[in-house]
Design brief:
This protein is an alpha/beta fold. Helix content is 17%, strand content 33%. Strands 6, 9, 12, 15, 16, 20, 22, 24, 28, 30, 31 and 32 form a 12-stranded mixed sheet that branches.
């Protein structure tokens, strides 16, 4: 009995779990506590990381707000940059190395920004006594003609910096620039139609040309056409189908009209306008206005001045010049890089031009007018300006006409009136005054697949092909450079006569220009590029 009770007590004690259960519970509690502590630590870490990420984003947006602030004032006052830090308050504009003056980002975000003016290479600070020398880069390359501003954004303990470069708008910024997207009045045919066109069509669509749409000839961008570079028009685009504008987002496609900035031509089976914008499309762009004349180029020191009709054939850095008197000489390109062909001061020049005039009337053997014929190959830096017209009468190529443009040459052509492509008719005496070709064909000297490597500006009129609506097709008109004109100039009729357009932008013109090439009147500064400053 006693033995039995002892055995039972031993069994009960051996089967009891009181102490083991307590140890297990304590161990479990410890594990849970450690897990909770780890979770709290992780959550606190996430909150910290999230906070830093938010501050970084806010600081970056603050830096962008600083650049927007500077751009706003620069657009209101083209000379804002030249005042250095002496600009109206409130402002956040500092000399380089200082961020003392700051402004809060609107909207109570808690972020702020400071702006620093980065001086030109070799200079230490922006100087109001020499703003150009102290701020504008003169060292050549992509930064030539630009100035830089650094914007630093602040949020919490975080900073973000962006450096922006600003460049004055130029006609050379675009493969294609027009003031008016309509036919040049001189290409309407009769004198009465030309006069009517000057009265009704020499205005933008938004300023009233739409009221005369039954008369004014609207030039379209059509399906299959590619603008291989940036574009600007003070007017709006007239679209037929699906043309393509730009090569990449770095090409700006600017129209000065309000949104949408383009319309469907509505005729000829065009249907709904469906342009493809590979470039960055901008509306309400500032209007760019050419100077009224190229006369300033007469006064360039050491410019080569010729009077009356002149013929120039380029060859590398040399040129063969035939003057209006008939004398011919081969000389170097002038050291100034500028040639000016002026009207005669002793004989009157009738600058009236029609693309429908007879061949004999268009191409006299001599003339008191400041017309210059130009062709050849070049390797130097040159601007050729004419008081009347520039006439391209054969290939005009950089480096060689075989293969792609090559070498460092740079050529500008500036005419007060027209830049024309030589296109005589056969028989030479045929008149097309009314716009009818009278069964004529392409004459001797007409060039198939003509190539022009140049930056061109027709101040008062157009880049145009003489007798563009006559004869058989001449293949491609290849332009490597830039075209700026007041009116759209026709170069052919689709499928029938003249040329097909093959226009490609010379990207060097973003930072290089031919000698003394003319800039727009009161041209605005625009932000050329932005880079994050680590």
């Amino acid at each position: 009995m006693h033995v039995s009770r002892r055995i039972d007590n031993l069994r009960r004690r051996a089967g009891a779990e009181d102490g083991f259960t307590m140890a297990t519970a304590m161990l479990g509690l410890l594990v849970v506590t450690l897990a909770l502590a780890a979770t709290v630590t992780a959550v606190n870490g996430d909150i910290s990381i999230t906070g830093r990420d938010l501050d970084q984003k806010k600081a970056y947006e603050a830096a962008r707000a600083g650049l927007a602030d500077y751009s706003f004032h620069l657009n209101k006052d083209n000379g804002y940059w030249a005042k250095c830090t002496n600009v109206p308050t409130p402002n956040a504009v500092n000399n380089v190395g200082s961020t003392t003056k700051r402004r809060n980002v609107p909207g109570n975000t808690g972020a702020s920004y400071a702006l620093e003016l980065i001086p030109a290479t070799g200079r230490s600070v922006c100087s109001t006594s020499d703003p150009v020398g102290s701020m504008i880069e003169q060292s050549g390359g992509p930064t030539n003609g630009t100035f830089r501003v650094r914007s630093t954004g602040y949020s919490g303990d975080t900073e973000q910096r962006i450096v922006a470069s600003f460049k004055r708008a130029s006609f050379l910024d675009y493969i294609y620039f027009t003031q008016l997207e309509t036919l040049d009045p001189v290409a309407y045919g009769s004198a009465s139609q030309t006069n009517q066109a000057y009265q009704q069509c020499a205005r933008t669509w938004r300023d009233g040309r739409r009221n005369y749409s039954n008369f004014c000839v609207e030039i379209v961008f059509a399906s299959g056409e590619f603008i291989n570079g940036p574009l600007h028009t003070n007017d709006e685009l007239n679209i037929c189908g699906t043309p393509t504008f730009g090569r990449s987002p770095s090409d700006l496609i600017e129209v000065s009209a309000p949104p949408a900035g383009y319309r469907s031509s509505g005729g000829g089976g065009c249907g709904t306008a469906r342009p493809t914008f590979r470039g960055t499309y901008l509306t309400n762009a500032p209007v760019l206005t050419p100077p009224s004349t190229n006369d300033s180029l007469k006064n360039v020191q050491d410019a080569a001045i010729y009077t009356g009709q002149t013929r120039i054939v380029l060859s590398g850095t040399q040129m063969t010049v035939t003057t209006n008197s008939g004398s011919t000489s081969t000389v170097p390109i002038p050291s100034s890089g500028v040639i000016y062909v002026a009207n005669s001061t002793t004989s009157a020049c009738s600058s009236a031009y029609s693309p429908f005039s007879s061949t004999q009337a268009l191409y006299p053997s001599n003339s008191p007018c400041g017309n210059v014929y130009v062709s050849g190959t070049y390797s130097g830096q040159l601007t050729i300006a004419a008081e009347n017209d520039v006439i391209v009468n054969n290939d005009l190529c950089r480096g060689s006409c075989s293969g792609s443009p090559s070498g460092d040459g740079l050529l500008g052509l500036i005419a007060n009136n027209f830049i024309r492509v030589y296109h005589p008719l056969s028989p030479t005496s045929s008149s097309t005054t009314s716009g009818n070709c009278n069964s004529t064909s392409n004459g001797s000297g007409s060039q198939s697949n003509l190539r022009i490597d140049a930056a061109m500006l027709a101040i008062q009129h157009s880049f145009i092909v003489d007798h563009y609506n006559c004869g058989s097709q001449l293949g491609d008109l290849i332009v490597n450079g830039a075209i700026a004109q007041k009116y759209r100039g026709p170069v052919g009729t689709v499928g029938n006569s003249g040329y097909n357009k093959v226009y490609t932008y010379d990207d060097r013109l973003r930072y290089l220009s031919p000698p003394n090439f003319l800039d727009p009147v009161e041209s605005a500064w625009h932000m050329q590029r932005q880079t994050i400053d680590p």
